[in-house]
Design brief:
The complex is a heterodimer. By secondary structure, chain A is mainly alpha-helical. Chain A has one domain (2-6, 16-217). Chain A contains 11 helices and 2 strands, in the order ααααββααααααα. A two-stranded antiparallel ribbon of chain A has the order 1-2. In chain A, strand 1 and strand 2 form a beta hairpin. Chain B folds into 2 domains: 2-150 and 293-353, Response regulator (Rossmann fold, 3-Layer(aba) Sandwich); 156-290 and 369-384, 3-Layer(aba) Sandwich (Rossmann fold). In chain B, helix 10 links the parallel strand 9 (234-238) and strand 10. By secondary structure, chain B is an alpha/beta fold. Chain B has helices spanning 2-25, 42-48, 50-62, 86-98, 111-124, 138-144, 155-171, 187-202, 221-229, 241-253, 270-276, 294-307, 315-333, 338-347, and strands spanning 28-35, 66-68, 71-81, 104-105, 128-130, 148-150, 178-184, 206-213, 234-238, 260-263, 283-286, 350-352, 355-357, 367-374, 377-384. The chains are: A mainly alpha, B alpha/beta.
Chain lengths: 288, 399
């Protein structure tokens, strides 16, 4: 029981890491390698708000998410739109966007180093005991899990229950056909990219309450997000959440019952397993 | 074509003559530093390494520079980021030696990169005073590279210190003999575990839980709950900063109360006490300083003034001491001749912030192994050959 709860909480953490990239990669078709840097930047801003102005990170989200939305919109409009416009094929856009965001990664990392230095940073927020079935869990992790659920549900409702969400999904499935039915593909893609950035920033803010981070750690989060996004099926939010939960529970079970040294092996074994039997991901669609 | 080439040769020859001409007349001492500003170890270097270089250079220049023979030479520092990779460090050091033509270099940061660059530094003939490398191969390395000096001790010393501190606690009746032992699965964690486990067993402890976890793990709830289930009297983790913090927070959350709680690198960081406040009290970790020694108190004060931050209570002071030794050796040699300075370093002894240091065989044998947070100071509680150790105290339950 304890293992399952710990695993589910960890899964929530992973979902927060991955959900933004799902939108950016799945809908906007941008493989954003600077995703982890956005994540860490949010950690730093949450830390700064908390230590300098005593702003609770949960309120901090209200500032950080809109800022991240605007910044990511600007990145898409200024940096990535030209790539999208000139790309002759999906493959070309993927290569170009990987190269561009790879550069962005170093820019962000450099800015964070300038601004916050290279040292490990952490703070204590809600590091209290929270009792579930007689075992103690960190309240900050429970809160992050709760927020992950809220974000996932809101996103689901937006994508599957609103008209605009349907348009966004149409773009994810086939950008060319979406144009034919009168969807403004460029705008939908920009919105998804910006929204993805905002969600990534939410994740960073929440994780900063229990993770120790520094300016060069972004790539760790990008890697984890990438695994989850591919396992879940590119562009499918439900898939990403389920993949995150599976990874969380599997890692915890292996760490608790077998050996903590094998958690990475478990992650990659699951990844290989999914790629072998469902290369399109858990919820992914077979490419026509 | 031929004329063009000979013209170029002439120009570069002229430039060369000019460059060497300037070098001969210089009154500045060029010192090069290559260490991580980015990459996995940037976090540690930002606390332990860079601030001490800054402090030393500023202080030396404030008092007019180093007295080399009959010249006062100010120090000019050239810094490069090695991105925490050995490849980059090797490029940087080659550049420092051949392009910047520095007179001396500051040690790189971390065991791995120091060992990887040691042959190159030996080839260029620079004194190599390592202050952040702790490995069991130190005696072998010190013999192999006669220009190298090792100040931070060996993994064995650090790990045996743990057994030593726990034994003191057991003898005083504070804890029993059950120990849970975990380590991060990289060279540092493995070496410490391989030395620590037999040392603990020899001291009569029983290992009731043992596990390792991958580098970078911060989700340590399962590790703490498994350790807790084994019902130990002491918890020992040979960990790195992010996991050191995570393990401590999880132990606190799960109310994992033991009489002795030891975590690895990062415990001695001021940020550790800053984050855990009262709960840091009684936590033991790698390192330690003799906080009551006057030269150490003076160092802590100056470090705070110049860099704006409190140093960590382990390798920071050692890093500073390494630079002090370099400076003193240059002044004693009265020349920037590298071989003569190396010979001077071997001669010793040096008065430093970590006390008197002798490097006859290239190794500093007197090091702190274990420290403990006691009312806001990280006091050394176990060492090899040093005096001033405080008695370890029993860890009180988490608040």
């Amino acid at each position: 029981m304890e293992t399952i709860v710990t695993g589910v909480l960890l899964g929530g953490t992973y979902a927060l890491i991955a959900i933004g990239l799902t939108l950016q990669y799945g809908v906007a078709r941008i493989m954003n390698l600077a995703n982890g840097e956005t994540f860490v930047a949010a950690c730093f801003i949450a830390f700064w708000l908390f230590t300098s102005y005593a702003i609770n990170p949960l309120w901090g989200i209200l500032v950080i998410a809109p800022v991240a939305f605007l910044v990511n919109w600007a990145i898409y409009a200024l940096l990535l739109r030209p790539l999208v416009d000139r790309a002759k094929s999906q493959g070309m856009l993927e290569v170009d966007s990987i190269l561009a965001t790879f550069g962005l990664l170093f820019l962000f990392q450099g800015l964070m180093l300038r601004g916050f230095g290279g040292a490990y940073t952490s703070y204590t927020f809600l590091a209290e005991r929270f009792d579930i079935f007689g075992t103690f869990y960190g309240l900050n992790r429970v809160v992050a899990f709760g927020a992950a659920c809220v974000i996932a549900v809101l996103l689901y409702l937006f994508l599957y229950r609103t008209r605009y969400g349907t348009a966004v999904r149409a773009v994810a499935v086939n950008p060319n056909s979406a144009k034919l039915v009168g969807i403004d593909v460029a705008k939908a893609a920009a919105l998804s990219f910006a929204l993805g950035g905002a969600l990534t920033a939410c994740g960073g803010t929440l994780l900063s309450t229990f993770y120790t981070f520094n300016a060069s750690m972004g790539v760790i989060f990008t890697m984890k997000a990438l695994i989850i996004v591919i396992m879940g099926g590119v562009g499918d939010v439900r898939g990403a959440v389920i993949a995150a939960l599976i990874l969380g529970i599997a890692e915890t079970a292996v760490a608790r019952l077998v050996d903590p040294g094998l958690t990475l092996a478990a992650t990659y074994a699951l990844f290989v397993f999914v790629l072998l039997f469902r290369p399109q991901g858990i919820f992914g669609r077979q490419q026509a | 074509m031929l004329r063009k080439v000979s013209m170029m040769v002439a120009v570069s020859a002229a430039a060369f003559v000019m460059a060497t001409g300037i070098a001969a007349a210089q009154d500045t001492l060029k010192i090069g530093a290559s260490a991580p500003k980015t990459g996995p170890l940037a976090g540690g270097a930002a606390v332990t390494h860079w601030p001490n270089i800054k402090l030393w250079v500023e202080e030396v220049n404030k008092r007019g520079g180093l007295k080399v023979g009959n010249k006062q030479m100010k120090v000019e520092l050239i810094e490069y980021d090695d991105k925490t990779t050995a490849d980059e460090a090797i490029k940087n050091i080659t550049r420092l030696a051949t392009v910047d033509k520095v007179d001396f270099i500051v040690t790189p940061y971390s065991t791995g990169i120091n060992v990887a660059t040691a042959p190159l530094i030996a080839k260029f003939g620079y004194p190599h005073i390592t202050t952040s490398a702790a490995t069991d191969s130190v005696p072998e390395f010190a013999k192999r590279w006669q220009n190298s000096f090792w100040l931070l001790g060996t993994s064995k010393q650090l790990a045996e210190g743990v057994a030593d501190a726990l034994k003191k606690l057991r003898d005083s009746g504070a804890i029993g003999k059950r120990v849970a032992l975990v380590n991060v699965a990289d060279a540092f964690g493995l070496e410490l575990k391989n030395a620590g486990k037999p040392a603990l067993e020899k001291a009569g402890f029983e290992i009731v839980y043992e596990a390792s976890y991958p580098l970078g793990t911060q989700d340590v709830a399962p590790i703490i709950s498994a350790a807790k289930a084994a019902n130990p009297d002491a918890f020992v983790a040979f960990s790195y900063p992010p996991d050191t913090f995570a393990l401590t927070e999880q132990a606190q959350i799960q109310k994992f109360d033991v009489g002795a709680f030891y975590v690895g690198v990062g415990t001695a960081f001021p940020a550790f006490a800053g984050r855990f406040k009262d709960n840091a009290n009684g936590v033991m970790g790698v390192g330690g300083i003799n906080a009551s020694a006057p030269e150490m108190q003076d160092y802590l004060k100056r470090h705070k003034e110049v860099t704006g931050a409190v140093p960590d209570a382990w390798a920071s002071a050692t890093t500073y001491a390494g630079l002090e030794i370099l400076g003193q050796a240059i002044e004693r040699a009265g020349t920037t001749d590298k071989a003569k300075v190396i010979a001077e370093i071997r001669k010793g002894p040096f008065k430093t912030v970590i006390g008197e240091v002798n490097l006859k065989d290239g190794i500093n044998h007197n090091v702190w192994a274990v420290g403990q947070w006691q009312d806001g100071t990280f006091n050394g509680v176990a060492s090899s050959g040093l005096s001033g150790a405080k008695a370890p105290v029993k860890k009180q339950p988490w608040k």
